[in-house]
């Protein structure tokens, strides 16, 4: 089959070369565009099913977003506040969709990958350094420790339920084997990329099924559930402001925006794929993110809310469920769902790391090169978390950089979305869209400001 | 108003983002002082109104 050189845009592909898509045969891309054209006139249910099958980057985004940090926050939220904070999830993710739509626009109509556009018009400090190196690379490497810590803890806790002990000092090898294999498969032609995307879809499916089954077992207070979803509530005073700003801005950040954009480019998506991208981030990111968080919050609201002292880590929180769930099988189901969280995130963070360092240093992406393999496997150093947590100074420095730079990258996205040089006639022409992006930027600004006020001792 | 015209170092759109950031700062700084009981809500309200104006103005797409 003829390889895709992406020099022709006759069927909606890019006029520029994106190496990860180069291994996808042109026929495959052409067929996809034809299928998309056919779906335009199909009945709604067929259209949605078709888009869900063809989608992928949105699900990958959900897998990264639904990591150890987000799930721990949801467990704590359910255990501390019951159902009351459920509304934040759909509001926060809803706001994030404006930014994801901006990234989809750049995937379809950008003249070059986004970070290179930033370098060209806003300088390398904003593009290569703040966006690629800090916002993506550092995040991928540092945050994978949390995934390792959670994943190996879950494996250690779940194996006795199936009759054997597998301590984390040994089980990290299995964790590393699975995540390394999947990470290295990405970008190896359309089959490798689809394998990883399908794995992410399956992980999300497992999370929904397992957390859903757990919720059926513990029961649900529908009255409180609907109240939590539709009636906004926050703890009083500064805690409420902290919770709202942190949750709404952290639902989706720079890493998620860029990952969606670059994984779309890796699929060879172009001009004809914008509607597919929109349905992909709605069905692949918005729905799973909201649904899975709803399920986790509800499980913990139903079991640990109002039970006195609440454990503070994900591993302790899930351990606390054991006596409440009763049967071993029920706990095992919960653990299987929970194990999908760090594994899928680790795979996503590995790919993100490869994309980040290649864009940061302007290297050409080649999945068969040692440079690609080395950079995608860099986050695997997270296995050290089995013995040592991340050094506190490193977490503080990265946290500070992230808080203070996320908003600057957001500014850059907004400015380029409105820049004729970057998008030509396809720049934003909608006040509504710009308003959504600006609200997201305002929340990110507030995260940075809160960080500074806290450091200066000026916050409450 | 042409948001994409350059005034000094940057376009009006960039200056608008900086002003929005300052208004966001006033909102939170004012909220902190108000919630501590140190001042009334004036600074916070100025920040909120400023933020709304900035967002409204900046939402105008390029001509």
UniProtKB/TrEMBL annotation, chain A:
Keyword RNA-binding: no
Gene Ontology CC: plasma membrane
Protein name per UniProt: Natural resistance-associated macrophage protein
Keywords for this protein: Membrane, Symport, Transmembrane, Transmembrane helix, Transport
Listed GO biological process terms: iron ion transmembrane transport
Matching InterPro entries: NRAMP_fam
Compartment list: Membrane
Transmembrane region(s): 54-75, 87-104, 125-150, 170-187, 199-220, 240-260, 281-301, 332-358, 370-388, 394-417, 437-454
Membrane topology: Multi-pass membrane protein
GO MF terms, alphabetically ordered: cadmium ion transmembrane transporter activity; manganese ion transmembrane transporter activity; symporter activity
Source domain of life: Bacteria
Automatic annotation (TrEMBL), chain B:
Membrane-spanning segments: 12-35, 41-59
Protein name: Uncharacterized protein
Organism: Croceitalea dokdonensis DOKDO 023
Keywords: Membrane, Transmembrane, Transmembrane helix
């Amino acid at each position: 089959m003829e390889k895709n050189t992406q020099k022709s845009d006759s069927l909606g592909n890019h006029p520029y070369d994106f190496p990860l898509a180069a291994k996808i045969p042109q026929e495959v891309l052409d067929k996809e565009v034809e299928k998309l054209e056919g779906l335009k006139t199909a009945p709604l249910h067929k259209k949605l099913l078709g888009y869900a099958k063809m989608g992928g980057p949105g699900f990958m985004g959900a897998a990264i977003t639904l990591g150890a940090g987000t799930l721990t926050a949801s467990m704590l939220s359910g255990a501390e506040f019951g159902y009351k904070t459920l509304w934040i999830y759909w509001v926060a993710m809803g706001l994030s969709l404006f930014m994801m739509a901006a990234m989809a626009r750049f995937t379809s109509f950008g003249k070059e990958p986004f970070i290179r556009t930033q370098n060209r018009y806003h300088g390398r400090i904003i593009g290569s350094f703040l966006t690629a190196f800090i916002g993506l690379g550092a995040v991928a490497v540092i945050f994978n420790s949390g995934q390792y810590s959670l994943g190996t803890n879950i494996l250690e806790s779940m194996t006795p339920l199936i009759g054997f002990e597998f301590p984390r000092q040994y089980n990290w090898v299995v964790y590393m084997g699975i995540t390394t294999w999947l990470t290295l498969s990405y970008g190896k032609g359309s089959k490798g990329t689809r394998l990883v995307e399908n794995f992410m879809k399956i992980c999300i499916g497992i999370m929904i099924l397992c957390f859903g089954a757990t919720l059926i077992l513990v029961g649900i207070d529908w009255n409180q559930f609907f109240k939590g979803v539709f009636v906004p509530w926050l703890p009083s005073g500064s805690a409420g402001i902290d919770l709202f700003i942190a949750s709404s801005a952290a639902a989706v950040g720079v890493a998620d925006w860029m990952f969606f954009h670059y994984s779309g480019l890796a699929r060879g998506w172009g001009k004809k794929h914008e509607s597919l991208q929109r349905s992909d981030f709605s069905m692949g990111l918005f729905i799973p993110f909201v649904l899975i968080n709803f399920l986790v919050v509800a499980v913990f609201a139903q079991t640990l809310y109002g039970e006195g002292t609440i454990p503070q880590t994900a591993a302790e929180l899930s351990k606390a469920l054991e006596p409440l769930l009763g049967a071993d099988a029920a706990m095992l189901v919960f653990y299987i769902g929970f194990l999908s969280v760090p594994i899928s995130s680790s795979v996503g963070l590995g790919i993100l790391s490869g994309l980040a360092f290649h864009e940061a240093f302007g290297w050409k992406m080649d999945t068969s090169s040692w440079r690609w393999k080395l950079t995608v496997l860099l986050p695997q150093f997270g296995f050290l978390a089995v013995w040592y947590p991340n050094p506190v100074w490193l977490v503080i420095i990265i946290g500070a950089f992230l808080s203070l730079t996320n908003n600057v990258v957001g500014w850059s996205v907004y400015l380029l979305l409105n820049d004729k040089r970057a998008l030509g006639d396809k720049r934003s022409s909608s006040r509504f869209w710009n308003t959504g992006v600006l609200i997201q930027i305002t929340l990110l600004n507030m995260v940075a400001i809160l960080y500074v006020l806290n450091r200066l001792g000026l916050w409450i | 108003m042409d948001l994409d015209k350059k005034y000094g170092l940057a376009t009006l759109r960039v200056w608008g983002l900086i002003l929005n950031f300052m208004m966001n700062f006033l909102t939170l700084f004012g909220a902190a002082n108000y919630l501590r009981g140190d001042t009334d809500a004036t600074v916070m309200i100025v920040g909120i109104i400023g933020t709304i104006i900035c967002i409204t103005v900046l939402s105008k797409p390029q001509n």
